[in-house]
Amino acid sequence: MAAIAEDGLDRLTMAGLGREVGMSSGHLLYYFRSKDELLLRTLEWSEEQLGVERRQALARQVPVRERLDAFVRLYVPQAPRDPHWTLWLELWNRARSLDDAARDRLLDIELSWHRDLVALLVEGASRGEFRAVDAERIATRVRALLDGFSTHVAMGLPGSDRAHVLAHVADFFDETLSPNDRTG
């Protein structure tokens, strides 16, 4: 993951990666078949690690909004060139060349985040912490918002640092989920 994040997949060679991890390029190709498969499997491994953290954060016995904020903190990159997000950017860049099975694997990862977000929105509404919303619809919008902001953070675009992104997302939640009717 660090090698991909540092140089990008295009500049990474199987021979160079093999030297870094103490394997021959032949062994890497035997296990991964291609750079795309290596990239996807690395992302799946990274997501498994992050999934453990996410499940722990969401299982805490705190208000739903605190868990929602923890979800967002796990989602948004820590800084430009965040290794986890670099994997996502590389895969999104290659998405057109991936086969259907690989795209299905990416969708499975996306849906795990989506299901957790929907569950938080439903729980928050049922407890009166959030107003009643169409949880599927709002979750789709939130993920698009997070993906857009996260891409900017990962790319290091000026004005898109993590703190500002977290503040924007918190404002969005306040405006969208507040149980008080702000329209009247």
UniProtKB/TrEMBL annotation:
Which keywords does the record carry? DNA-binding, Repressor, Transcription, Transcription regulation
Chain ranges of the HTH tetR-type domain: 1-50
* SUPFAM superfamilies linked: Homeodomain-like (SSF46689), Tetracyclin repressor-like, C-terminal domain (SSF48498)
Q: Which organism is it from?
A: Streptomyces cremeus
Q: Has keyword Iron?
A: no
The DNA-binding region ranges are 13-32
Q: Spell out the Gene3D superfamilies in the cross-references.
A: Tetracycline Repressor, domain 2
Q: What is the residue range of the signal peptide feature? A: none
The name of this protein is TetR/AcrR family transcriptional regulator
